[in-house]
Amino acid sequence: MPIVKALYHYPVKGFTPQARDALTVRDDGRIEGDRVLAFRFADAARPDERDGLDYWAKSRGLSLMDFPALARIRTDWDGVRLRMTIDGEVLVEEGLDPAGRRRIADAMASYVAGTPDARRLRAVGRLPLELVGDGVVPRFQDRPRGYVSLHSTASVAALDALVGAPVDDRRFRSNIVVDGLDAWSELDWVGRIRIGEVAFEAQKPIVRCLAIHANPDTGERDARLLPTLTGRIGQREPTLGILLLPVERAGVIRVGDEVSVDEDCSAARDPAAAQPVRP
Prior knowledge:
Order of helices and strands: EEEEEEEHHEEHEEEHEEE
CATH class of the largest domain: Mainly Beta
Number of domains: 2
Mean pLDDT: 90
Largest sheet: 8 strands, mixed
Strand content: 25-35%
Number of strands: 15
Structural class: alpha+beta
């Protein structure tokens, strides 16, 4: 029986995870504590956004897709203060009052300015950065609809075997990592999946972006995973993992929970034949 090996949420969109023993899945499909804060570019807010908290795509703020050096920053959000460290040194630790938000945003801009990604931050309309989010409501997922993301350790291991750089689960930024599945089998899920006490409906495989090229320790793009997925593995689009939505009611999932798949949920199919829908 497949089981949940690891659980993560990502308090700050585009930054490092916090490992959890349990995650609370909300009725809307989002995870409590997941993507509750984000760094948005100055020109990203639309005139009709009164509070600046409407959904917006990751291209409108700091993310690993365009700023791989962010992978070096370790974030910890405790509900009161946001703490960021680099190699054990504190970059910033502040609350979310207006002055604290400004100091956090300025510290982040200063850090990026000293990395190879600095030129991207100097583009017109990107500065000053703004730290948005109330630290409670999960708002800044990569898609307008809330989803829970999942991948298997076997799929990551199969990809790791094909590239020179180390590839582990952290590159793929999923909420749920599952052990005990065949490589790529989660891409074929359709229908109902139960994880512990929560029933999910499989939605669509996850088409990946440049974020997965970034080493989660060094921030360097050291693994060409996108062309490996489409080239050596033969996928039509670079795909790893799947998106889920809860059905009936939400609840809590825990490390060690069993993962059960309806008999009709998975069709035997080569991963090269997967045709994921681009989110």
